[in-house]
Every structure is written in C-alpha cells, then in structure tokens.
Amino acid sequence: MRICICDDEISQCDVLKEMILAHGAHAVTVYHSAEELLFECENNYAFDCIFLDIQMKGINGIECARKIREKDSHVILVFLSAISDYVFEGYEVNAIRYLLKPLNVQKCHELLDIIQNSIEKESAYLLINKTKINCDDITYIESFGHYCSIHAKEVIESKISIGELCRQLPDEFIQVHRSFLVNLKHVEAIQKDQCILEDQSIIPISRSSVKKVNEAFMAFIKGGLYL
C-alpha cells in the first residue's frame, strides 16, 4: 500500500513508520506538518491511506482532513491522537478510525489489515503522473512509441509502455492491437476488425487478435472471467 504519515512529532513518525514497514512492503511518505502535506500533494492525494495527527501546530489534523475531503472523497483517513475526544469530527470527514498514542504495534497491524482488505474490495486504480485514475473510468489506452494516452474522464499522457500498463490493469482490459488496450466494460460492440465503445470511439482490432477479443468479449458479457 501507499501510506502517508503526517505528524509534527518526528519521533512518533519514526515509530509509526517502523510499525507499518514491519507489517509489509508498504511505501511510506512522511510529512511533519499539514501545510507541507497540502502543499506537496497539490490537491492530488496519491495514497491508499493517510495517518493524520490531530493536534498539530498550525493547521491541525481535523482541518487538514476537511481540506483533503474537498478534493478526495476516497482516500482512507486515520487519526492519531493521545485522546479520543474528536470522534464526531472523525465521522464528519469519514475517517476509518483512531490510533491512540502511545502507539501499539498490534492495534496498528490490525488496522492495516482492515485497510488492506477494504482496498482490495474497491475498484483498482492506476497511479500515473502522481494522479490516481480509477480503472473503471478508463475506456481505452493508445500507445505512441514510448508514450501512452490514457482515455478516462480526461486524457492523460505518460511515458510508460503499453506492456507495463497491461501488467498493472485488471482482467477486463484486453490488448486488441499492438497499440491499443480497451476496457471491456466500455465496449458496446465488436465488429470484424474494430471495437465500438460506448462513446462511439472506434478502436482497431489486429487480425491476429480477432479470435481472442471475441472470446474475451463474450465471456465478459456472460459474466465469466477470460484469462
């Protein structure tokens, strides 16, 4: 998981980071103030979970959570506090729960298990150019040499190979051409040599991929899993 810690007590950050890394191979980013977190992330919180200390100098954890929620309704928030007096503010910003200080490794790991299970049940996403893209929103991907254009709610270009994207995307994505990946969730029809998407985009199908694409589409609309 991609985890962020925001706490102005450096020693507490170190303790929590050590606990998180002992739980698994997580990527941990640390900020020592809410101002630093909000500035560095530029309204794009590319984390699975953010641990926020409530009682920070300047912008406190509750205020920071409200600002995060203005831009991101999905990232999981956990409050760190020495007291449990802020429970109602936690409900307001949809925080998953509290970790009370002094931190306990068992409770921390139990919480990380809950977070990991929750994330696995949610839709997959890509992290491209520090932007989280929900895979369900992607209609198709087109490759141009060493770059790819990802067509979702907006078009995002990134220096990444189509092969690398294939490895990151869930099973409903299929490569129909050496330069195109399509999301079967957005395919309206398969014709002889092309896919018609819901937005009426027309994506070519290579001759060598026709059989595979047709089988994948039929399996998908019947609710099966095509491998």
Task: Estimate the mean pLDDT confidence.
Answer: 86
Q: Please report which band the strand proportion falls in: under 5%, 5-15%, 15-25%, 25-35%, 35-45% or over 45%.
A: 25-35%
What is the CATH class name of the largest domain? Alpha Beta
Radius of gyration: 21 Å
Described by strand count, sense and barrel closure, the largest sheet is: 5 strands, parallel
Give the count of helical stretches.
7
Spell out the helices and strands N to C: EHEHEHEHEHEEEEEHEEEEEH
Number of strands: 15
User: How would you write the strand order of the largest sheet?
Assistant: 2-1-3-4-5
CATH architecture name of the largest domain:
3-Layer(aba) Sandwich
Q: What is the distance, rounded to the nearest whole angstrom, between the alpha carbons of the first and last residues?
A: 26 Å
Shape: elongated
Overall SS class: alpha/beta
How many structurally independent domains? 2
CATH topology of the largest domain: Rossmann fold
Low-confidence stretches: none
CATH superfamily annotation of the largest domain: Response regulator
Helix content class: 25-40%
